[in-house]
Automatic annotation (TrEMBL):
Region (Disordered) location: 1-30
InterPro entries: CHP04141
Pfam families given in the database record: DUF6119
NCBIfam families, per the entry: TIGR04141 family sporadically distributed protein (TIGR04141)
Organism: Lentzea albidocapillata subsp. violacea
Source organism, top-level taxon: Bacteria
Protein name: Sporadically distributed protein, TIGR04141 family
Length: 579
C-alpha cells in the first residue's frame, strides 16, 4: 500500500470532522483558479487521467496535505509541440526555426468531507480522469448564487433537431432573459455572471479588505467553476466547505431553475454505453426496450429547400431513395453486433439533395439522421444530432404544456381537406399539389409561395419563407405526415417556420419577401404590413387524427422552441390540423 503524509493510505481515507487546523484563520489572499468536482470514487488516484499514471510520462504524482485534508498533487510538462508561426517564418524567409513550446501544468486533488475537488493550473484539466468529472457542478452552483440581472456571457445549445450554439456577451452585465434564453430550457454550456450582492457565502474572496470594502464575486461556470479561492491550504478547505454548503442547503433561484432541466451526457459518461445498446435494440425492432427511435433531419437541413432524395452508404449498403425511412437506416445493421451498430452509423454517411441535385452537406454522419428516446432508471434520455441529453421531469412537463397550448390555438380560418386537392398523374397528392389547390380555390386569400426562396447574406442558398401566404400576412407552413415518416418532417416544418420568422425581424429581408410576393400577386404585396402577422403550422396526418397527444416525440421539442421564440418576438403561433 502506498502511504502519504501523516500515514494516510493511498485512498486518502480519514475522519471527515474539521480539525483545529482547519478552523485556523487563513490569509485573505486569493487567486483565480479553475475548480472541478469529481464523482464516483473516494480514491484520489482514481480521479487522475490514466495516461498520467503510466510510467513513461513526465508527470509526477505526490500525496500531500491541503490544510489538514488528504490531497494529491499531479504536475509536470506537456509534450513539446511546434510553435504555430514557424511555418509562416519558413515560407517568408526559407529559414526553419524549429522552435517548440512546453507548458507546465498542475492539478491539486483534495477530499473535503467526502467530496473530491481538483484545482487546476494551466492545462491541469488534462490531468483529470474525464469520466469522473461532474459536468453539472458549475451550473448547479451558479443557479444558487448568480444574480440573474448580472449575466455577462451565455453560451447555449438549443435542444431541438436544429441544434445550434449561440454565444452572447455583454461585459456590463444584463438580465438573463435579455439573451433570448427562453423557458423551454435550452442547454446552457457556459455562464459568466456576478454573484448576488446579498449572498451570505463565507468565501475568502468575499471578506472585506482594507482596499475594497464591498468585494463582489465573478463566476465562470462551465463543467467546473472559475473563481478566486484562497491560496492557503486551510483557507482553500474552508472555501470548498462553503461550496459544499451552498450545493446542499441553498435553494435554486426560480428564474434560473430551467437551466437545470436539460443536461448533456458527456462522451466519457458510463450511461452512454447502455443508451447506445438500447438504441441498437430499438433499431433491430426489439419491442421490449422502453423507448423510441425515428428519422430526424440534421441541423444543416433546416434551412434552404426541401430534400428530394437521399444518397449514402452504411456498412457497405448503398442508400439511394426519394423518401428516407427507418428501414433504410436499420437494414444495413441487422447482421452487425449490437455494440457496433451506432459506431457503424457514425462511420456511415447520408446526404440530402434538393430538386436541382445540390447537397447541403458533404458526408453527413448517418447517426445524425436519427433521433431516439430511451428511458433508464436514471431518467429520460434523447439522442439528437449525434448527442445525448438527459431530460428532467420539469422539462417534459413544460413541453407537454406548451404543445397543448399550441394545439388549442388554431388560426381564425380553416383549410380544405387534403383529399380535396386533385391528385397528380401518379394518383398521389403531394404538398405542392395541395398548396396550389389552396391558392386556386381559397378566394385569393392565399398566395402559393412554395419553393420561392428568399436569399440573404446569412442564407446564401435561400430559405423558404412559407408554403402559403395567408390572411393577415400569416406564414403558413404545410406538411403531410404519418407513422411511416415519423417525426422528421414535422421537426423540419417547425424549424423552417422559426428560421423564416426570425429572419423577417430584419426589415430588408422582409422587403425581399414582399418582392417575391409581388411576382405572384402585386395587389397582395402592396397590402402587406411591416412584419409577419402570425406563423401557422398546417399539418395533415394520413394514418390517424393529429392531436397534441399523437404529435411525435421528437417534433414536440422543436414546436416548443418555435412557439417560445416567436411569441417572444410578438408573432402569434397557430397549429392548423388539415383533415
Amino acid at each position: 500500500m502506498t502511504t502519504g503524509p501523516n500515514g494516510t493510505d493511498h485512498h486518502g481515507v480519514e475522519s471527515n470532522s474539521p480539525s483545529d487546523d482547519d478552523q485556523a484563520e487563513p490569509s485573505a489572499e486569493t487567486r483565480r483558479v479553475s475548480l472541478y468536482q469529481l464523482t464516483g470514487t473516494s480514491d484520489l488516484r482514481e480521479c487522475v487521467a490514466p495516461k498520467v499514471l503510466e510510467e513513461d510520462n513526465e508527470f509526477e504524482v505526490e500525496f500531500v496535505r491541503v490544510g489538514n485534508r488528504p490531497g494529491l498533487l499531479v504536475h509536470g510538462w506537456s509534450e513539446p509541440e511546434e510553435i504555430g508561426w514557424n511555418s509562416m517564418v519558413h515560407t517568408l524567409t526559407g529559414v526553419d526555426l524549429g522552435y517548440e513550446r512546453r507548458v507546465a501544468s498542475a492539478a491539486v486533488f483534495v477530499d473535503v468531507d467526502g467530496t473530491i475537488y481538483v484545482v487546476t493550473f494551466n492545462h491541469g484539466w488534462r490531468l483529470i480522469r474525464d469520466s469522473r468529472v461532474n459536468r453539472a457542478f458549475g451550473i448547479d452552483f451558479a443557479v444558487r448564487v448568480v444574480d440573474d440581472d448580472e449575466i455577462q456571457q451565455l453560451t447555449r445549445w438549443a435542444l431541438s433537431s436544429k441544434s445550434r450554439v449561440d454565444r452572447n456577451a455583454v461585459p456590463s452585465g444584463q438580465g438573463l432573459w435579455s439573451f433570448g434564453l427562453r423557458e423551454h430550457a435550452e442547454l446552457v454550456r457556459e455562464l459568466v455572471a456576478k454573484a448576488r450582492a446579498d449572498l451570505p457565502v463565507q468565501l475568502t474572496h468575499l471578506r472585506p479588505k482594507p482596499h475594497r470594502r464591498n468585494p463582489w464575486l465573478r463566476l465562470e461556470c462551465r463543467d467546473g467553476l472559475k473563481l478566486p479561492l484562497s491560496v492557503e491550504g486551510t483557507g482553500l478547505v474552508a472555501d470548498l466547505r462553503e461550496i459544499n454548503k451552498v450545493l446542499a442547503e441553498y435553494p435554486v433561484v426560480d428564474a434560473l431553475a430551467p437551466l437545470q432541466w436539460v443536461k448533456r451526457v458527456p462522451a466519457g459518461d458510463e450511461r452512454r454505453e447502455v443508451l447506445e445498446l438500447a438504441v441498437a435494440e430499438l433499431l433491430a425492432g426489439n419491442g421490449t426496450i422502453g423507448g423510441e427511435v425515428g428519422i430526424s433531419y440534421p441541423a444543416k437541413y433546416f434551412e434552404g429547400p426541401d430534400v428530394h432524395c437521399y444518397r449514402g452508404s452504411i456498412n457497405g449498403t448503398v442508400i439511394d431513395t426519394d423518401e428516407l425511412t427507418l428501414e433504410h437506416i436499420s437494414r444495413p445493421l441487422h447482421l452487425a453486433p449490437p455494440q457496433t451498430r451506432l459506431s457503424s452509423l457514425r462511420s456511415g454517411h447520408i446526404d440530402g439533395y434538393d430538386e436541382h441535385g445540390k447537397s447541403s452537406s458533404d458526408g453527413m454522419s448517418a447517426l445524425q439522421w436519427i433521433a431516439a428516446e430511451v428511458n433508464l432508471n436514471q431518467g429520460r434520455h434523447i439522442l439528437l444530432d449525434g448527442e445525448w441529453f438527459a431530460l428532467g421531469e420539469e422539462y417534459v412537463s413544460h413541453v407537454d404544456s406548451v404543445v397543448r397550448k399550441a394545439f388549442a390555438s388554431p388560426p381564425p380560418w380553416s383549410l380544405p381537406a387534403w383529399n380535396d386537392a386533385p391528385p397528380n398523374k401518379d394518383g398521389k397528392i403531394h404538398e405542392d399539389d395541395y398548396n396550389k389547390h389552396v391558392a386556386n380555390t381559397g378566394k385569393k386569400r392565399f398566395v402559393c409561395m412554395d419553393k420561392k426562396l428568399v436569399t440573404t447574406r446569412a442564407h446564401p442558398r435561400g430559405f423558404e419563407a412559407c408554403d402559403l401566404l395567408g390572411p393577415g400576412d400569416s406564414l403558413v407552413h404545410v406538411k403531410r405526415t404519418s407513422s411511416s415518416t415519423g417525426s422528421s418532417p414535422l421537426s423540419h416544418l417547425f424549424a423552417q417556420g422559426l428560421v423564416a420568422a426570425e429572419s423577417f425581424t430584419n426589415a430588408d429581408t422582409w422587403e425581399k419577401f414582399r418582392q417575391l410576393v409581388a411576382k405572384q400577386n402585386p395587389a397582395r404585396a402592396q397590402k402587406m404590413g411591416p412584419r409577419p402577422g402570425s406563423v401557422v403550422f398546417a399539418i395533415h396526418r394520413s394514418d390517424k387524427p393529429l392531436t397534441a397527444d399523437s404529435l411525435f416525440t421528437f417534433a414536440r421539442s422543436t414546436l416548443v422552441s418555435a412557439w417560445n421564440t416567436l411569441t417572444t418576438y410578438g408573432i402569434p403561433v397557430h397549429v392548423a390540423v388539415i383533415n
